[in-house]
Amino acid sequence: MSELILDGEQTIYQVRDTYLQLKSIMNESKGLSLSLPQIQECDCAFVQLLLWVKQEAERQQQPLHFLQPPAALVELVSLLGLSDVLFAPNQEMLNG
User: Fold this and answer.
1) Domain MlaB-like STAS, which positions (predicted)?
2) How far apart, in whole angstroms, are the C-alpha atoms of residue 57 and residue 76?
3) N or C: which end of the chain has fewer CB within 10 A?
4) What average pLDDT score do residues 71-78 get?
C-alpha cells in the first residue's frame, strides 16, 4: 500500500498536480493511504478529487484510507452533504 502526504493548499490551483500524482499511484499500487492532517486550505475542487479517488479505488478494488482529515475538510464535506459518501462511519478513516 502506498501513502501520499498532502499538505498546504489543496485548491483548484493544485488539484491538477495532485490528480496526476494520485493517478500514477493508483495505477502502480495495491491501495492508498492519503495523509491529510497538514492540509491548511481546501475547496470543492479538492473534494471532487477525493470523490474521484474513492471511486477509482472502488473500481480497482483497492483499499483506500483517509488519514487524519483536518476539521476544515470534514466541515466542507459535511456542508456539501457528502459526509456519508467520503467519511462514512463504516469506511476506514484513521485518526491516529
Assistant:
1) 6-82
2) 22
3) C
4) 96
